[in-house]
Amino acid sequence: MHVAAAQITIRAPLSHSLKDKRRIVRSLIDQIRNRFNVAVAEVDALDKHQLIVIGIACVSGSAAHAQEQLDAVIRFAEDFAEGAGAEVLSIEQES
Q1: How is residue 37 annotated by DSSP?
Q2: Could you tell me the pTM of the whole model?
């Protein structure tokens, strides 16, 4: 069993309330869950309306497959952030 995990921190300057933030987070998490076979959740900065921190984990029988899935999710999250007027501040990976 191989596990690949990442934490992505996104700054959303157009988010002026927690309600705005939740809309962005819910959309991102739902799209990742529907498109990829990974676990994803908001993991930190829950009360900061312009900061989004999500955690992603992929479990696979192959280390290469787990890393490929994680890389695809990261690319998707970066594209999503750009489309939402946000920017990715950091990406931390473990495998």
Answers
A1: S
A2: 0.85
